[in-house]
Specification:
With 305 residues, the protein is α/β, with parallel strands linked by helices. The protein has six helices and twelve strands. 22% of the residues lie in helices and 24% in strands. The radius of gyration is 18 Å and the shape is globular. The protein starts with a strand and ends in a 10-residue tail after the last strand.
Length: 305
């Protein structure tokens, strides 16, 4: 029996360091985001994130998946601060980051996410999709983050990325591996409002229906969401979202949480996936287990014990 332990956290919204914005930024969408951050900074607390990170490290996962929104304004100073935070979290080979819309708030005029290259994949590139193979698990890292107009937080993969994903999911090299897809925006309808949705989610679901996957992890909604997407041969692919990793839970979204996903390959070939939800206890301020459930087999509908 072999168990691969994958930790999933999302939307940490690290506090902007001093000098995160310059005067030129006040002429861009970053000004609107700065105004929004003044409302949100009491909700997203660094001490809460530190509590969850300590709890996650005690779990000793084999790999950590972070589905975006490490920053708030996507400024170079913030991207560098997030790089330092990732370095403190653990070795780059053990952490995969799928960028979020706040990480691509405006067009930076060059290749995005370059400071995070070691956490995007194994090939030293800031390109997508990337595939990382870890102990029988194939992690397909997508990027739905793209600059948008004012008041929009939509995402888009684009035809090129979707075409490459289609080819890689079809590659027989991965057929015996447990295939996990990482994306910031939920790939299912109704998870978020239209102004925050993945614009080409229908195209992504078409790829998944044609090629299959075993699990999709996302963030963005700041909610614990459980859904499915159609896969090949009538099978359903579990789609799981997790709340923000730094939220107090005093607003309309729940308190901070992360998920431990235990992929259990049994001797008879069956794969059992257990999800352990851990998060902030509002009373004590400490992390605790909130519940657990089982996805009976890869690509099959969820069954709760």
């Amino acid at each position: 029996m072999s168990i691969f332990r994958l930790a999933h956290l999302s939307d940490p919204h690290l506090p902007p360091p001093k000098g995160a914005l310059g005067w030129r930024d006040l002429l861009s969408k970053r000004l609107l985001s700065r105004i929004a951050w003044r409302r949100k900074r009491d909700e997203h607390r660094p001490e809460i994130l530190a509590t969850l990170v300590a709890d996650l490290k005690a779990y000793a996962p084999d790999h950590v998946a972070i589905t975006g929104d490490l920053t708030n304004f996507a400024s170079p100073v913030e991207l560098e601060a997030a790089r330092l935070w990732l370095e403190a979290l653990g070795p780059a080979r053990d952490i995969t980051v799928s960028p979020g819309n706040h990480d691509a708030l405006v067009d930076a005029g060059g290749p995005p996410f370059v400071p995070w290259t070691p956490w995007l994949g194994d090939h030293g590139e800031a390109s997508f999709p990337q595939v990382r193979i870890r102990d029988g698990v194939a992690i397909f890292n997508l990027c739905s983050a793209t600059p948008t107009a004012l008041h929009l937080a939509t995402g888009r993969l684009g035809a090129d990325q979707l075409s490459r994903l289609d080819a890689r999911l079809a590659d027989p090299a991965w057929c015996d591996l447990f295939r996990v897809v990482l994306i910031h925006h939920p790939p299912v309808a109704g998870a978020v409002s239209a102004r925050k949705a993945l614009e080409d989610q229908d195209d992504l679901r078409a790829v998944l229906a044609r090629r299959g996957a075993d699990l999709v992890l996302h963030g963005h909604a700041h909610e614990a969401l459980v859904a499915t997407a159609p896969g090949p041969d009538g099978r359903m692919i579990p789609v799981l979202g997790v709340p923000s990793a730094s939220a107090q839970g005093h607003g309309r979204h729940p308190a901070a949480r992360w998920h431990g996903i235990e992929i259990d390959r049994r001797a008879d070939g069956e794969i059992v996936v257990k999800v352990v939800a851990r998060g902030l206890d509002p009373t004590s301020g400490q992390a605790m287990e909130l519940g657990r459930y089982v996805l009976s087999q890869a690509g099959r509908p969820a069954q709760r014990p």
